[in-house]
Amino acid sequence: MLIKKPSDIPYSEVTPNSAYMNRRKFLAGVAVATGAVTLAARSVSDWFESARVFADEAKLGPLAKSPFSTDEPPTPAKDVESYNNYYEFGTGKNDPSRNATKFVTSPWSVSVEGEVNKPRNFDIEQLRKLAPLEERIYRHRCVEAWSIVVPWIGYPFSVLAKLVDPKPSAKFVAFQSYYDIKQMPLGPRAGIALPYVEGLRIDEAMNPLALLTFGMYGETLPNQDGAPVRMVLPWKYGFKSIKSIVKVRFTQNMPPTTWNLANAHEYGFYSNVNPQVDHPRWSQATERRLDGSFFGKRIKTLMFNGYGDQVASMYNGMDLRKYY
Amino acid sequence: MKDLSRHINIRWLKPPIFLVCLAPLAHLVWMGFHDELGANPVEYITHSTGTWTLVGLCATLSITPLRRILKQNWLIRLRRMFGLFAFFYVSLHFATWVWLYSGFDVHAMIADVYKRPFITEGFTAFVLLIPLAATSTSGMIRRLGGRRWQMLHNLIYISAIAGVTHYYWLVKSDETVPLRFAAVVAVLLGYRAIRHALQRKQQAAAAKRSRESVYSA
Q1: What is the pTM (predicted TM-score) of this model?
Q2: What is the pLDDT of residues A24-68, one digit of tens each?
Q3: Residue A77: closest CA among chain B residues belongs to which residue?
Q4: Which residues touch A42 (CB under 8 Å, ≥6 apart)?
């Protein structure tokens, strides 16, 4: 397959995207560009396969399956794409899908800095190619007591972290979202300080579940779901999974986080899914699973959203009522 | 402005207003059938019925100030309909909470009312409106007597304040809409408070005058 060894041929250099729209032109173009030797090495069907994969700019692949995936049925994509909390684009659930359509996510770069030996600025295309992309079907639990099941696409954040080589002094990782009033005119009315910032303890960030995410449902992320790159932390409430990342900073001290700044009494730094610790204003014991049925079904919320086997050991000995 | 009471046939006016008041519900049903309630219809229905309850309460509370300021006495004959529509939407809101949100889980609901201030407020606002709806008929007004009926129906002031507080405490960060409702309710209740204070002052002055006139006689 074409992008199994991403370092061989940079994605951007393979072929202009428009050439893929027509298979005959595509084949001719490839033949000219890469020569008959390359073509001979592959069966024609392989090339058609590749052409299919890249026919749509939004499509991502090939995707490795993950043992971390749940077998629960994914929420319909249209629901995940139209029911969003992305306050930079409005506080109503369907505001982001309407207001983020023109959000510019290319060019895009992510600065990785702080307590690391090799700070680097990544172009989004570079970043996406750092590791093979996996599909991970995760449960996603919002602090507002609804949940969805989403097939995310990405690779473990630890891949990126290892590349920049954190110093021993790096105890936390801080993240920052893109923010520009010109593109996000509703930002000042969000009621939270922007740009959005989030943070993790370094061991949380290195946990294999922590996914640096570029896509969902087989395609690149829609703007309203955090394009072009976001975190997904399935054992934490959704707001920890920061969207549209522009900066990753390794730090010595616990970084500030947006919702904690807005209301420390209600939103802690950790914000692990915990059915035993209620939000001050509502119960966290149950959640409404948005599964495409008319009203969704109400189900019991699981400790660490059901990911205790992978993450519980990180919090041994901690009073999770105090560190909510 | 001249009182148009004599020119307005309230019987003709009521049916179109009735239909307008039903429109939000009709819209919800229509959206339901066309799969337009979004990914979380329970939340949408809850918010919609709650919002229209507050609109109904504000409409009810605005009748008296409008009637006095515009000197249109016929408006009073629309007040009951608005009040009952507010009660209709709060009942739908409450039913959504009991059935769709809580799934008839009585323990969870009692815990919610007891533990969560915003639900306590909402529940209070709803419960206070029940006796008002129950005594909204002309027969009940006669049986209670105008003065006692009016005293009872002053509960709507508390209900409106509780309803707005309920909304304000519910939102996570963007308080724009709850604050707009709070502002409307504040104006409508503020009008009454000021008028009440002015009346008392006038009454006191009148009483003083009459006392003085007794002495001077």
Answers
A1: 0.83
A2: 444 444 444 444 444 344 444 444 444 433 444 689 988 999 999
A3: B39
A4: none
Q: Do B40 and A290 touch (CB under 8 A)?
A: yes
Residues of A in contact with B169 (CB under 8 A): 281
CB A219 within 8 A of CB A59: yes
At A69 the three-state DSSP class reads coil
> In sequence order, what DSSP letters do the residues of A4-15 get, joined into one string?
SSTTTS-HHHH-
For residues A252 and A300, is the Cβ–Cβ distance under 8 A? Answer: no
pLDDT band at A2 (very low <50, low <70, confident <90, very high): very low
Q: How far apart (Å, rounded) are the C-alpha atoms in residues A31 and A25?
A: 10
Q: Is A71 helix (H, G, I), strand (E, B) or coil?
A: coil
The structural domains of chain A, ordered by start, are 11-55 (no CATH), 64-315 (3.90.420.10)
Read off the amino acid at residue B134: A
* B81 domain residue, yes or no: yes
B113 to chain A: closest CA residue:
A282
Q: What is the mean pLDDT of residues A235-258?
A: 98
Q: Report chain B residues whose CB lies below 8 A from the CB of A189.
A: 174, 176
| pLDDT given at position A57 | 61
B40 and A283 within 8 Å at the Cβ level: the answer is no
Measured between beta carbons, the chain B residues lying within 8 angstroms of A91 are 172-174
Residue B3 lies in a domain: no
Q: What is the mean pLDDT of chain A?
A: 87
- Contact yes or no for B42 and A282 at CB 8 A: no
Distance in Å, alpha carbon of B8 to nearest chain A alpha carbon: 41
State how many domains chain B has.
1
> Whole-angstrom Cα distance, residue B193 to residue B195?
5
pLDDT of A96 > 60? The answer is yes
* Whole-complex ipTM: 0.83
Annotate B141-174 with DSSP letters as a single string: HHHH-HHHHHHHHTHHHHHHHHHHHHHHHH-SS-
- Chain B nearest-CA residue for A144: B172
- Cβ pair B116:A83 closer than 8 A: no
Report whether pLDDT(A4) > 90.
no
Q: Which two tokens stand for residue A213?
A: 């995410």
Q: For residue B165, give its domain range.
A: 10-216
Contact A216, A138 (CB under 8 A): no
